[in-house]
Amino acid sequence: MNETTAGPILTTEGIPLKISLKKAEKRNKVRAFLLVAPLLVFILITFLIPIGDMLLRSVDDSYINTVFPKTFEKYKEWDRQGLPSEELYKTMFFEVKEGSGRSIGKATTRMNYAKSGWKSLLKKSKRKFKKIEEGPYKPQMIAIDKRWADIEYWKALGVMVDPTTAGYYLNAVDLKYNVDKEIVRQKENRRIYNHTWYKTFKVSVLVMFFCLILGYPIAYLLSTLPLKYSNLLMICVLLPFWTSLLVRTVAWMVMLQQKGVFNNLLVMSHIIADENRFKLMYNETATIIVMTQILLPFMVLPLYSVMRTISPNYMRAALNLGASPLHAFWKIYMPNSVPGISAGCMLVFILAIGYYITPELVGGKDGQMIGNWIAYHLKTTLNWGLCAALGAILLGVMTVLYWVYNKLVGIENIKLG
Amino acid sequence: MALPSYATTGQRVGWYTFLTYCGLVFFFLIAPIFIILPLSFSASPFFEFTREFMNLEPEAWSLRWYRQMVGISSIGDTTVVTDKWMLGTRNSFIIGISATLLATALGTVAALGLSRPHMPFKGTIMAILISPMIVPLIITAAGMFFFYSKVGLTHSYLGLILAHTALGTPFVVITVTATLTGFDTNLIRASQSLGADTMRTFFKVIMPLILPGVISGALFAFITSFDEVVVVMFVGSVEQITIPKQMWAGLRQETSPVILCMATCLVALSIALLTTVELLRRRSERLRGIKLRN
């Protein structure tokens, strides 16, 4: 040890202590990170990249450009006044005639989103083009189908020239591009998403609200009871949490259907007549009831963990100083439990907004949420651009809420039972 | 907390109203789960309590749906073997157990890293690792469907296992990190100063202490995979039946009481898992010297 030095303190190896410590800390940081790295990489590859990839689909419009590359090259020269020149017709003619049926079929699906009629027009044309041997092509194409002389069809192609589009996002909020690439509202009968968004939020808020008014009292009871009782009652909260979502949904179907337990009880006790049983299933009410029961544990657990830390002495002091029980509760206990309320509400809302299974099974037509439309486009209509756009908007809302939740509660404070 | 002896009548009424309300909420939580248990023993092909069933008439009670569940059913005199449910059970266990092992290994190691005081960007990394639990399943399923089909992972066990591992890891990370709070790092120093290397320290000192958390996390990961239906539907092939997928199909097409039998089995399973986790939690709290609740 060098005791006489006036300069920086040195370690036994003669390196200044500050640098040595910094080095050690850096080493520790790297070590800690190396432990987390495998999972981080795993989540990145199996989860985050797939979701990112899906989000790219929501703006991707390049496919059609790969099917008709020359047509779109020529198209850019067109002045959009009057019908295009013979040359553009000719390029289109050859690309339709020589293109593979499958890729054209796929492209026409996209073209139909821009202007309906393209699909049938191209299908018909492809069949008839085989007989045309030489030009001029424009009059012959128009002879095959009048629609080739309709400028609206040509204008509609302009929407698809760019390899990226905001069109799917517009569709997701009931807007669309018209043939001149101006944003207009969807036709009356095709406006479904704004209403669905509204309904998704409404159901989520209601579920959150019901979870709060049902969950708050029992969390309070659990946190004030002696340990041996509260542990027993806690099982009532934890068991649903551990039971399969489908099992609980089935159970509710047994309860709520026309000949279900609930209606049977009412009939047996002569409250309602046998012929006018309540229609409890396959509507929005059913969705709300079932989701409330399913998400209730997610409200109770955060509330309980906050309430446990509130000392009963606060309430005693308030009562002692002359406050009525209600007043004391409102002024003392409530404000102390706010962190639990916000944590529970956020968690329930975040989980509720993306629900799919329950609305699908018990919601009927009227109880469908945005998740159901995503699934519908994913597997039935195969309009994957719209599916991705709806998903992206939902994910955006979730990310904001998740961020707020993280700021408010801290993600590491999530408790599971 | 009970009512003090000097409580006024008004307070008494209020307190008992409150207790009744809580009782009803507990009933609301728990009743639907138990309502299916008796119904699975009904002979009726519908999900309803018939009058004969309620009067405990022997012919209204039967095990026929359970027999059908394990693959034996009879139409008239011929015995038909439908093994969809057993196939589903087998698949669910294969996928569930593989995903659990993978998720537990990755999650435990990551939690050890996250609990170190020197961890950089802790908050952000934690938020990323927890995100599979928060992102709606339908979005996860859509993303995986597109991406996994690009890389050829759809319609394979590997794809499903990887997907379920991703969904299960947040639970492992959360429970193990929770167990590690209050972990006395001096124990590691003591072990190392006595000459144990890193591996030996991990298996002889750290592991026994965090084991309850690890097992709880593993059980959470298992039940997550075991219950999951949306990702299986989109990433798996038609033949890759799992229990929830078969239940889903049963609910949407041929509503058969076999679903109730399987549901009863699943409730039994969740009771078993819940009990295990509760016992482990108490053991862990005792081991770490943390006072029990209250």
Write a concise synopsis of the structure shown.
The complex is a heterodimer of chains A (about 425) and B (about 290). Chain A is mostly helical.
Relative helix content of chain A: 55-70%
CATH topology of the largest domain in chain B: MetI-like fold
- Strand line-up in the sheet with most strands of chain A: 1-2
Q: Kindly report the average pLDDT value of chain B.
A: 85
Query: In percent terms, what proportion of residues of chain A is strand?
Result: under 5%
Description:
The complex is a heterodimer of chains A (417) and B (294). Chain A is mostly helical and 417 residues long. Chain A has three domains: 17-57; 63-164, no CATH class; 196-413, MetI-like (MetI-like fold, Orthogonal Bundle). Helix content of chain A is 69%, strand content 1%. Chain A contains 19 helices and two strands. Chain A has helices at residues 17-57, 63-67, 69-75, 86-98, 101-114, 118-129, 137-144, 151-157, 167-172, 193-224, 227-242, 245-256, 261-268, 284-307, 312-320, 325-353, 357-362, 370-381, 384-408; strands spanning 175-177, 183-185. Chain A has a two-stranded antiparallel sheet. In chain A, strand 1 (175-177) and strand 2 (183-185) form a beta hairpin. Chain A is flat, with a radius of gyration of 32 Å. Chain B has 294 residues and is an all-alpha fold. Chain B folds into two domains: 9-80, no CATH class; 84-287, MetI-like fold (Orthogonal Bundle). Chain B is 70% helix and 2% strand. Chain B contains twelve helices and two strands; from the N terminus they run H-H-H-E-E-H-H-H-H-H-H-H-H-H. Chain B has helices at 9-39, 51-54, 64-69, 84-114, 122-134, 137-150, 157-180, 186-193, 198-227, 230-235, 243-252, 258-287, and strands at 73-75, 78-80. A two-stranded antiparallel sheet of chain B has the order 1-2. In chain B, a hairpin with a 2-residue loop joins strand 1 (73-75) and strand 2 (78-80). In chain B, helix 7 crosses helix 9. The longest helix of chain B is centred in the first third of the chain and has 31 residues, at 9-39. Chain B is globular and about 75 Å long. The mean pLDDT of chain B is 85. At the A-B interface, helix 1, helix 10, helix 11, helix 12 and helix 14 of A face helix 1, helix 4, helix 5, helix 6 and helix 7 of B.
